[in-house]
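=== Discrete structure encoding ===
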Amino acid sequence: MAIDQQYKEYIEKHFLESKKSAFQIENAILESELNAGGQNYTHTLHIPKIFTQEDKQRFQDIVDRTYRIFEKVIQAYKKDEKIRSLFPFSKQLENFILLPNRYDVSIPICRIDIFYDEKTKDFRFCEFNTDGTSAMHENAKLAALLSLNNVYQQDSHTYEQMELEDHWVDAFLSLADENVPDHPMVAIVDFLENAYLNELYVFQQIFKRHGCQCEVLDIRDLAFDGKHLRSIYTNRKIDMVYRRAVTSDIADRCAGLDFLEAVKQQAITLIGGFQTQIIHNKQINQVLRHPWMQAYLTDEENAFMDAHLPKTYDLNQKLPIDIQNKDQWIIKPKDSYGAQGVWAGVDLSQAQWLEQVQRCMNRNYLVQEYIQPYRSPNIDLVRDDVFKSFTNMTGLYVYNGQFAGVYSRCSDGGVISTQYNERSIPTLFVL
């Protein structure tokens, strides 16, 4: 019997005990840094995501193959004007993307979100998050709270948990060049009014444990004196920047800021350089299917992408497909994050779907093939007394090109995101 089925049967036989356990976990979340106030806190389910070592090896293979393709795309963009013309970037952003980095890694941190079928081991891509990648602490905290899960506590299996926080700080610091001291001053920067602040402060403490000075700063609160970038509050010289601010927000709001001037003059070691935007932009799906880009990839790499990328089209009057069948399609902005502005046809009536299509038409949106996610039974014992079928999203973290761990999310809706009833669950690999 599968382990998750064993969990289900145990919950059904020990229902009141399990419900009490779920409320203990909920209260621990509310009292932790996973609570951002009001209803803005992490919601979870009672059965963790349990993968096998075969799954782990499969994830490693997906990451290795995908990351190699990412590197080829970035190199093609840098040397080929035709490839650059396939992306919707402004000239200013293009210039920043083309700046050299002070390290050799193409993408320091990313999360490849996939729809993974746990039975067949097949998958389809959802999106590539290479810009402002987050939730590493949420993942760690939910794993720690398994100590309150009554079913997990009686589980006799041995599990591996892939640690993501100290691992990321180690990967980050490994990118320091000869200009960076042994114990650097690290600035974690974002637009703080939009930031996942609690996670940023957790990482601030981890950097300090690793012997660094560290400040969490609004990206607008940095001063450049022509040689060094500094915190306007402490006047500390910043050696390395951990960029959590997403590129689209910077492009929209940061013209003329000291941060950009320091980047332009290569005066700072910026961990995530702007070339990450090449992969983050949702138009990457179309680029990867374009003959110009396919010429840079091997036949095997093109076949890999053809098999796993959902079909994607510009949502405009020249749309070459019929999207009347709403359940087959999903609408996404070309450059966004956190599932903002995403509409899945399966969540809408026919009239609502047609209304959204018209509202988004010719407004920088994409329409994409809707992938039916793998579904598994689970239960939210705080809010419900019955098991439901939840869709699954598997996020593969990648640090400096290496598979680092998994972020598991579920939803009882068509879109898996915080604003669409997302539930995050801890991830385990059975040994």
